[in-house]
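Need a sequence for this fold. Nothing fancy.
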């Protein structure tokens, strides 16, 4: 009996430790981050900086920084990335260019050896919208799917040497996500309008045929299904898919797929979504080494929050909330990847300009970032404003001010906001006209050592810099 009790206690302890949160890591100033795991356990992270460059990091399985790059984008407004890592540990990434109905592209790049290829537009001729691109890679071929009012699939050949668009095909499923099943066949997960969520089979010519409904009969009226589909997380012969319903609830669904046309289970994790919002929220999932699926998503309302859920043996955990009441409508900005052996890493954009990484689970992984190798976008050339802080690093007092040029038009008074790396606002400094250039003093003597983010808003734009407090 004692042995049995000890085993049960050990199981309960291991099961409960999945939501143990590690320290937050500030990765830089930017938007729409993405994260993926390589075959050896390396963790790859990319995001768009405030100066419209693609920033990329690769960490080893313990969280130590191995490499960092800044990839030119031609100053394009790249958003909503999806990234995968192939069996050679090479990252592949796609972006849309612009927001919502005005978005174009998609744009694609990969890193072969030590060099990132120049981003290429996979469909420059189109005037259709390009939203939420998704990518999958096998051997020397990539498949990209995205929403363009309905759905579009693109096949790219010779991706290691010189990517060539071989085929484009308009398809029935909205927001199609290509996925290779355990049977070796290609499938597409997407929405068939008001008919709901379907799994399709796909051949090498991007022709899709409907396999079976994933949501039919599972979540009420099919006309209410908005299905913001996510890339599936494969677990053996099964897969996790998730989507959203209209109205007040978000729906995540687990399906036994590929081998059986039968839904395995589901869970309602709302409320907080209006029908229009459900169209704009894309959950993201990853398969953990512990055999569970991890789902991250954003709630939406007066106080947006990021949540993380673990699904194991058809049982959904209660969601863990990250950054409650700190977000600012940051749809698409929460991504998750499995860490080696145990737990997951998660990235998101705090307040839409700070890229934050966290870890969950009983693991030793910690994002260890060497900030000296990072781009620090302190300047926006269109406004010609530069925030400065001196001294930096500092001990207890730091002077914060700004330089402005002929292109700028600084207001008479503005607020300087200071955040810790978890996104908590720790100070607000009112800065009058005569102090903007000479600087205003921040007394941080009662604050713990670490990195702080300094921001101010001018003409509806946010300017940022970071300061480091040492003892």
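Here you go.
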């Amino acid at each position: 009996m004692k042995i049995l009790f000890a085993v049960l206690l050990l199981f309960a302890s291991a099961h409960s430790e999945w939501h143990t949160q590690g320290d937050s890591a500030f990765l830089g100033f930017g938007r729409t981050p993405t994260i993926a795991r390589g075959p050896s356990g390396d963790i790859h992270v990319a995001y768009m900086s405030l100066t419209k460059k693609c920033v990329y990091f690769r960490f080893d399985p313990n969280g130590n920084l191995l490499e960092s790059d800044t990839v030119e984008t031609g100053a394009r407004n790249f958003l909503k990335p999806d990234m995968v890592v192939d069996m050679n540990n090479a990252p592949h990434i796609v972006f849309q260019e612009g927001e919502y109905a005005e978005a174009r592209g998609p744009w694609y790049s990969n890193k072969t050896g030590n060099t990132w290829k120049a981003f290429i537009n996979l469909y420059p001729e189109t005037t259709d919208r390009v939203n939420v691109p998704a990518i999958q890679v096998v051997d020397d071929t990539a498949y990209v799917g995205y929403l363009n009012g309905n759905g579009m699939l693109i096949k790219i050949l010779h991706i290691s040497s010189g990517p060539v668009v071989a085929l484009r095909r308009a398809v029935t499923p909205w927001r199609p996500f290509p996925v290779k099943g355990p049977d070796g066949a290609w499938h597409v997960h997407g929405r068939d309008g008001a008919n709901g969520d379907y799994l399709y089979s796909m051949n090498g010519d991007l022709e899709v045929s409907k396999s079976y409904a994933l949501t039919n009969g599972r979540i009420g009226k099919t006309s209410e299904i908005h299905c913001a589909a996510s890339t599936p997380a494969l677990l053996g012969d099964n897969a996790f898919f998730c989507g959203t319903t209209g109205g007040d609830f978000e729906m995540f669904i687990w399906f036994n797929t590929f081998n059986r046309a039968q839904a395995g289970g589901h869970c309602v994790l709302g409320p907080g979504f209006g029908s229009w919002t459900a169209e704009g929220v894309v959950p993201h999932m990853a398969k953990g080494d512990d055999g569970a699926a991890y789902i991250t998503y954003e709630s939406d309302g007066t106080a947006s929050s990021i949540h993380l859920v673990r699904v194991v043996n058809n049982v959904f955990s209660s969601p863990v909330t990250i950054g409650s009441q700190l977000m600012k409508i940051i749809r698409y900005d929460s991504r998750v990847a499995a860490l080696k052996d145990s737990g997951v890493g998660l990235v998101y954009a705090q307040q839409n300009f700070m890229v934050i990484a966290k870890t969950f689970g009983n693991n030793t992984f910690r994002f260890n970032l060497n900030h000296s190798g990072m781009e620090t976008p302190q300047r926006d050339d269109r406004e010609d404003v530069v925030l400065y802080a001196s001294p930096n690093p500092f001990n207890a007092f730091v002077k914060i001010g700004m330089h402005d040029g002929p292109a700028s038009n600084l207001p008479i008074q503005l607020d300087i906001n200071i955040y810790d790396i978890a996104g908590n606002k720790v100070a607000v400094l009112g800065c009058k006209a005569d102090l903007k250039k000479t600087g205003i003093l921040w007394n941080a003597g009662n604050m713990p050592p670490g990195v702080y983010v300094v921001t101010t808003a001018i003409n509806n734009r946010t300017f940022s810099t970071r300061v480091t407090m040492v003892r």
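For context: The first helix runs from residue 2 to 16.
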